[in-house]
Amino acid sequence: MELQDKVIKLVSEATKMDAANISLNTSFVDDLNLDSLDMVELMMKMEDEFGVEIPEDETENLKSIGDVVTYLKSKSH
Amino acid sequence: MKLNRVAVTGMGAICGLGNTLNEVWSNAIAGKSGITALERQNTEGWPVTFGGEVKNFKLNPELMDLKDQDRFDLFNQYALHCTDEALKHSRLLDANYAPEKIGIIFGTGLGGFPHLEANHKIFLEKGARRVSPFFIPSVIPNMPEGLVSIKWGFKGINFAIASACASSAHALGIAASEIMLGRQDAMITGGTEGVITGYTIAGFASMKALSKRNDEPHRASRPYDLDRDGFVMGEGAGVIVLENFEKAKARGAKIIAEIIGFGASSDANHITAPHPEGLGALICMKQTLEMAGVAKEEVGYINAHGTSTPLGDVAETQAIKKVFGEHSYKLAVSSTKSMTGHLLGAAGGLESIFCIKALETGILPPTINLDNQDPSCDLYYVPNKSEMRNVKYALNNSFGFGGTNSSTLFKKAD
């Protein structure tokens, strides 16, 4: 599975939103209506799934699925 | 100062006997047991493996979306479920009370223990960075009130009462007083609890408080019976809608009963054991009758605290005899915990509902498993079968660890 699809699958399961409605452009706040607590929980799940540590000040820049995918790719090199 | 009358206009219930008010009541008056072997968790190594567990519960996603259902502990979900039922029953949302004149006070003895345990395990095994940001909101005892207020937009009083197993009975009294004083027009009250976990059971079992009749769960809760050996854990909620009587009448609400008195007292004796002669219980039953201005001879039914512990059932019986004198042998007493188990902080809410239904229907729910009555408990406990009896006043008793006591008196609708 592509990294992008893995992220979408994880977000879909965490938010109970249909994966078909989630794309790279999907914004966590504007489209998925997540609040700050939702975001903390989601980042924990990302860290568990992808084996990375996402520092707190970094999470503020992760506003969309695309941001997360780009960030994770940068960590894997 | 003239106090407002307080009407009961709606109810919602969930416990081991059923997931709606009608299911719970019809099983209660049929004398069924809601106590079974526990099914939701692996009980290997637990000292007690049975209880009054709620079965097949799935909260309506309109009341809490699915992602939040994973996050919010059971007692929150039971409160939303029963509030929804009670609001529909009362048709309160059709009334035109100002939002700030509708308040919420529930009783909860312990709060979100299941999520507390789960997050503690995560903390120990995976570290602080994996503790859920929803851990604290999910477990604090007043979150059910918060969720109800957010869901329906009620902007009045909003807090929880904690007095162990007397919590929801105290909640009813305080909620009623808010209406009596005119501070609120309507109150959502009662109690909610969902703490059947290995850790909680271990705690109560270490106190020797629980029945260990693991081979016969349905016979384990047996108040006033010689073979009783402790209480049985239950869970669930009982939610009651209270309204300013005159305003409820003016809007055409069906008035089911009235709350006319309540009392609260302390044993000042021991952290967990009841006062041997039920002194605190006596004080609060007397207070309740005095507040209501009702003669003791007029009370026809008592839903007792009656937890099926060796000491508690005797102490409460003695207190009833001291308060009611000769009349204590004429009135009917029953412990519905024989069927539901002990809902701890939610007990007073559910058992007040049993009092109200008894007034409404003229049917008294029984004490089941009363096969061999303890001579120290010599009142009439409606043994094993419900009974038709028209009653005008019904009293609920609820007592809690810390030596705290509460009684509430209900009057049949005119």
TrEMBL record, chain A:
UniProt main location, coarse: cytoplasm
One record GO biological process: lipid A biosynthetic process
GO molecular function per UniProt: acyl binding; acyl carrier activity
Name of one Pfam family that matches: PP-binding
Sequence ranges assigned to domain Carrier in this UniProt record: 1-76
Domain of life: Bacteria
Modification(s) after translation: 4'-phosphopantetheine is transferred from CoA to a specific serine of apo-ACP by AcpS. This modification is essential for activity because fatty acids are bound in thioester linkage to the sulfhydryl of the prosthetic group.
UniProt signal peptide: none
Residues annotated with O-(pantetheine 4'-phosphoryl)serine modification: S36
Compartments reported by the entry: Cytoplasm
Family: Belongs to the acyl carrier protein (ACP) family.
Name of protein: Acyl carrier protein
Gene: acpP
